[in-house]
Write a structure and sequence with these properties.
The chain is α+β, with helices and mostly antiparallel strands and 153 residues long. Helices cover 20% and strands 31% of the residues. The protein has four helices and seven strands. The strands form two sheets. The protein has a four-stranded antiparallel beta sheet with strand order 3-2-5-6. It has a three-stranded mixed beta sheet with strand order 4-1-7, with no helix packed on it. It is globular and about 40 Å long.
Length: 153
């Protein structure tokens, strides 16, 4: 009889063999998204992850990114609709990262009231947590900086 190893066990084993901390897998970004109940006025919100050049990220408009929801191009790595009407969201996903390009994450709020996109430049981290407010990405405070994120750290 053949024994099947659960997916989580396989990921942990691969992480241990590669020398990563538990929860990381080389070539992938583990993204944890946390959002409050009533996100985006309790209406669905589109979420996109794509590979981009840094300059492209800095100059692209909200409308240009929103067009990718209906007409995806090869740069889109993941697209999903999030909905937090009756409860908060806590979701984990694995994103296969591109080789040398940056990874951009977009939350297409109906009425953005602050940051709606975030960029991860190479080397892409193994894990990240993105917390959302009702209408924006929650900015990290100075107390949230880790040694590797601090300037000169």
């Amino acid at each position: 009889m053949r024994r099947v190893i659960p997916n989580r066990a396989v990921l942990l084993l691969l992480g241990a063999v590669s020398g990563c901390l538990p929860g990381c897998l080389p070539g992938y970004l583990r993204m944890d998204i946390r959002a409050p109940q009533g996100l985006n006025d309790s209406t669905p919100i589109h979420f996109l992850v794509r590979e981009v050049d840094t300059q492209q990220y800095r100059t692209e408009s909200y409308d240009a990114v929103a067009m990718l929801v209906a007409q995806r191009d090869p740069s889109v790595l993941r697209a999903k609709v999030l909905y937090a009407k009756n409860k908060a969201i806590s979701e984990r996903m694995w994103i296969k990262t591109p080789g040398k390009k940056a990874v951009a994450v977009y939350f297409l709020f109906t009425r953005p009231q602050g940051p709606w996109k975030i960029l991860f430049e190479p080397p892409i981290p193994y894990t990240t947590t993105i917390e959302l407010d009702s209408h924006s990405i929650k900015p990290k405070s100075q107390g949230d900086l880790t040694t590797s994120e601090a300037p000169g750290g």
